[in-house]
Q: What sequence folds into this?
């Protein structure tokens, strides 16, 4: 299978994995926020009743969780494609 065909075949898989990663990361973030902050909801950046530190901490935590989950899901997807096709997706 050529690289172009391999890339095209993996594209829909990558999109679906990206959506799943986003949903999973959002759920993980909400649970971690509840445990660490003791608050039911993470602050909205435009919520005037929340402090800068709280808003920036929530954004940093959310970004870190999203990046880790996305990397794990992408890597797992690539490993799965290699197992099925014998080739690493480009």
A:
């Amino acid at each position: 299978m050529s690289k172009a065909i391999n890339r095209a075949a993996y594209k829909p898989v990558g999109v679906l994995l990206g959506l799943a990663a986003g949903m999973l990361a959002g759920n993980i973030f909400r649970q971690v926020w509840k445990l660490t902050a003791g608050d039911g909801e993470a602050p909205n950046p435009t919520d005037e009743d929340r402090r800068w530190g709280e808003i920036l901490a929530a954004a940093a935590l959310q970004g870190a969780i999203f990046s880790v989950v996305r990397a794990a899901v992408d890597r797992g997807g690539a490993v799965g494609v290699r197992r099925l096709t014998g080739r690493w997706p480009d």
Remarks:
- Residues 3-37 form the longest helix (35 residues).
- Residues 19-38+58-89 form one domain.
- The helical segments are 3-37, 52-85.
- Residues 34 and 41 are 7 Å apart (CA to CA).
